[in-house]
Amino acid sequence: MDEQPRAYIAGPLFDEGERWFIESLDEMVTELGFCTFLPHRDNPAKTEHNTGEIFANDKQGIDDCDLVVANLNGITTDDGTAWELGYAYALGKYLIGLHTDWRARFEHEVVNLMIEKSVNELVRSTDDLSASLTSWLQRQPPH
Question: With left for phi above 0 and alpha for psi between -120 and 50, is residue 97 left, alpha or beta?
Fold first, then answer.
């Protein structure tokens, strides 16, 4: 049996709406055939004593993934998400940014230019994300 490709799902997780959205993204990515790493699901609950463990787990999740799907919604990109993208970029991972907010900052720039220029694709809807992931899967050589 072929090994499933692995996707790291990045984005802010600070309120119920953000967690609901990222969990719905995770569900969609899983249904497309990916094994996913979702930081708030795949780590212990954060305490003052385990932040090093959580950092190491998240870093390992990026090390092990084939691609990163990042929720870039918000006035600015979440700082943890920006770090995850930068680290994954340095490793040469395939990066897909999702920005569904219809308010554009500038005509020529949707999110911070350092992030926008780092991602392989910037999609504007969950339908576009699904199409992008399907296309990525089709481009992969058989295991």
Answer: beta
pTM of the model: 0.93
Q: Tell me the C-alpha to C-alpha distance, in Å, between residue 138 and each of 17, 31, 33, 66, 111.
A: 32, 15, 12, 14, 28
Helix (H) or strand (E) holding 88: helix 79-90
Exposure of 36 by Cβ count < 10 A (0-12 exposed, 13-18 middle, 19+ buried)? Answer: buried
What's the pLDDT tens digit per position in 74-116? 888 999 999 999 999 999 999 999 999 877 656 677 898 999 9
For the chain, what is the largest distance between any 2 Cα atoms, rounded to a whole number of angstroms? 47
Element (H, E) at 77: none
Q: Which domains does the chain have, with CATH numbers?
A: 22-139 (3.40.50.450)
Query: Nearest to residue 11, comparing CAs of 122, 19, 93?
Result: 19
